[in-house]
Design a protein that fits this description.
- This protein is mainly β.
- The chain is about 5% helix and about 40% strand.
- It has a single domain (about 10-210), classed as Roll (Pnp Oxidase, Chain A), CATH 2.30.110.
- It contains 2 helices and 10 strands.
- The radius of gyration is 22 Å and the shape is globular.
């Protein structure tokens, strides 16, 4: 296959969206999107994290394997998968209810005097924090080519530190790990033609097909 610079991709723009995790086998609630979308609009039921710092988003699929040894060989004859993971890491620089509630792991409530709101909001930090399951969508695009990663069920696994300075915005660093949902981890959607295999010439078979 010849090299093709037109198939080099970047991610100059994108967004992260979050929603309560769907419930396996239940009706109603969050429905992870099965369509690519327009690259600009949040899927139904999802909320936008807002601005991300210039480092963008880090997607890390990983597997853990274990070798299978045999008497007849000094090297493994097989590797079996013992674990799999998919993490999404990003640093958000927009201060809003989505970023702060998921960073601190609790909701905001307005302090009231009787039935009257005071305009002061409180978020209680638990000594034993528990993060709720969420559903996560990552969108990015370049030159009309859209990409979408959907993690149906995930949970915050790590948080960074907020450094309060005069010249830098507040930064909310979050890592979310995919969890099993209905026997799957998630899926990727795209309209990018570069992922298609080269067309087979008429009247010929690929090596695998003719083997």
């Amino acid at each position: 296959m010849a090299n093709n610079a037109q198939k080099i991709r970047f991610a100059p723009n994108g967004a992260l969206y979050i929603a309560p995790a769907p419930v396996d086998g239940a009706t109603g609630g969050t429905k992870p999107p099965t369509e690519l979308g327009d690259g600009k609009t949040a899927p139904p039921g999802y909320r936008d994290f807002g601005y991300v710092d210039e480092s963008g988003v880090t997607l890390t699929p990983s597997v853990e394997t274990s070798p299978v040894a045999a008497w007849q060989s000094a090297v493994p004859v097989l590797y079996i998968v013992t674990g799999a993971a998919f993490s999404v890491k990003s640093t958000f620089i927009e201060t809003n209810s989505v970023t702060t509630e998921h960073f601190f792991g609790a909701p905001w409530t307005e302090i009231k005097t009787g039935e009257t709101g005071t305009g002061v909001y409180r978020l209680n930090l638990s000594s034993t924090p528990e993060f709720s399951d969420v559903s996560l969508v990552v969108d990015w695009q370049q030159k009309g080519y859209l990409w979408r990663v959907v993690i149906s069920r995930a949970m915050v696994s790590d948080r960074g530190a907020i450094q309060l300075t005069r010249k830098e915005p507040h930064k909310y660093e979050l890592t979310l790990e995919g969890l099993d949902f209905a026997g799957g981890l998630g899926y990727v959607l795209t309209n990018d033609p570069s992922i298609m295999p080269p067309a087979t010439s008429p009247g010929t078979l690929s090596k695998s097909a003719s083997a």
